[in-house]
Amino acid sequence: MALNLNKVLLAGNLTRDVELRHLSSGQAVAKIGLACNRRWRTPEGEQREETMFIDAEAWGKTAEFIGQYFSKGRPIFIEGRLKLDQWEDKETKAKRSKHVIEIGRAHV
């Protein structure tokens, strides 16, 4: 039996203010940048840290919730799925893509 699972859980801080907009249909869309830090100690005892920057988006009531209660620097915990956005660069006509988290739920 094949098992398919696409679930992402992330906790971090917003890297910019929420970009909230409404489509012509009235549906809300929120785009955020998230910074997730990882700290560890090397076998030699040296403390290390790295930061991963992740783009995420939310739709509907979740987007409105994020737009109302979050801003740059605030901590957030999100649940969602990983998706691949693909587009063609308008200037170079090159094909572009990037992974984005589609948020299903967000928590303070």
Helix content range: under 10%
- Poorly predicted ranges: none
Beta strand %: over 45%
In whole angstroms, the N-to-C terminal distance is 37 Å
Strand order of the largest sheet: 1-3-4-6-5
What is the H/E string? EEEEHEE
What's the shape? globular
Structural class: mainly beta
Give a quick account of the main beta sheet: strands, pairing sense, barrel closure: 5 strands, mixed, barrel
Q: How large is the count of helical segments?
A: 1
Radius of gyration: 17 Å
Average pLDDT taken over every residue: 95
Count of individual beta strands? 6
Characteristics:
60% strand, mainly beta, 108 residues, 5-stranded mixed β-barrel
Note down, in words, how this protein is organized.
The protein is mainly beta and 108 residues long. The chain has one helix at residues 60-69; strands at residues 8-14, 19-22, 28-41, 47-59, 75-88, 95-107. A 5-stranded mixed β-barrel has the order 1-3-4-6-5. The longest helix is centred in the middle third of the chain and has 10 residues, at 60-69.
Outline the fold blueprint:
Layout (H helix, E strand, L loop, with lengths): L7 E7 L4 E4 L5 E14 L5 E13 H10 L5 E14 L6 E13 L1
